[in-house]
Amino acid sequence: MEEQYGRRNRSRRGDRPARGDRSRRWPESRRWHGPRRWHGRRWYGLDDNEAGRPRLPWRSTALITAFVVIGSNFTAHQQPGREPLDVSGRVLLLVASGLLLWRKRHPVFVAFGTATAALVYLAAGYPYGPVFLAVAVSCFSAVVTGHRRAAWTSLGLLWAGHALVALWLYRWLPPPHDKGTSIGAEIVVATWVLAVVALSELGRVRREQWARERADRAQAARRRADEERLRIARELHDVLAHSISVINVQAGVGLALLDSDPEQARVALTTIKDASKEALGEVRQVLDTLRTPGDAPRAPAPGLDRLPELVQQAASAGLTVEVEGAPPRLPPGADLAAFRIVQEALTNVVRHSGSRHARVRLVHEGGALRLVIDDDGPATGADAGGSGNGLAGMRERAAALGGTIEAGPRPDGGFRVLAVLPLHPREDQ
After folding, report:
1. Stated pTM of the model
2. How confident is the model at residue 68 (pLDDT cuts 50, 70, 90)?
3. What are the CA-CA distances from residue 234 to residues 347, 366, 391 (Å)?
4. Strand pairing partners for 361?
5. What are the residues facing 373 on neighbouring strands?
6. How far is CA 139 from CA 81, 105, 145, 346, in A?
7. What is the rounded distance in angstroms from the CA atom of residue 40 to the CA atom of residue 87?
8. Do residues 98 and 110 lie in contact, with contact meaning Cβ atoms separated by under 8 Å?
């Protein structure tokens, strides 16, 4: 009974936290991290910018409003025939320029709102002045945000309403005894409207161009990062695969001879120590270039001049390597790629081939270096614990230099890796 009661009680309460422990009661995404604002059904932090919505342009709107109000007061003294600027006129100016505060969130509404306020302001007989600046800014914002038709329509309605007032309705509208304007004046207003549209379209084109340039730069940065990541992955794979293969073989020899031949087991352990030390050094060099990509490497990159050292390491793993030909002088990138290709090919022989003999031939002909790595096989068919990326890494290295890799079984048995690397690769031209 006590067990059933305890189980039922726990199923009701679950993992309910202790009273006062609010950190476990609410998930991290819903915890309070500062001032927040209720919006609909969700809470938004004041620094979250309303869940990604654009910020309100307070500063620019305040500057435009001050310019419109002060400039209209100044122009009112220069136009004595118009209605004096009273409280109603100033309210219309504040409405026309204050709507610009929402021009990024609601560009269509602001475009029509500013045009309507400006039309009412002019129909009431108030003096001409900077009120058209608010209309121009709202239409510019609507165009650059993709609402071109709304911007053009609002400007067209403003011009049509102004022409209607100036050519016909002025008889019944203030100021009294107004003589209206001529068709030439309306042509000037139409020219102003077209200029606003042209500048808005120019701003839209420039903004789209900047967006494309930013996207291209971001894509190029991602491509460079991917290439650098693949390069480091290839380096680590080639370094670790070869050294760990030697360590694996020597560890097996040491375990097999530990009781019967302690001296040979000691030699195997010494080889393991040397291989691990060298692997740590090369891994440290790769990581140093990753931490400080702008600095020069502390140690020179390996090349074909270290081929005898590579042969000696393969011999310690029980593989006899015969080298034919002398390596030519290569640029640093091609030299490193050639060394890594030979290293990976010999590592694959140690891992996957039953042969204990391999041949490396270096042939310099036709402005290219031909690397031929052969073994007599047969394949062991056992899982050597590799990642399966060795051949892919060799092909990537050769392709980066404009070369090719061919790998496959030979007609007379065994396996062959043929690499053709140009002596003047693309990355060095």
Report:
1. 0.47
2. very high
3. 14, 28, 11
4. 324, 372
5. 360, 417
6. 30, 13, 10, 70
7. 36
8. no
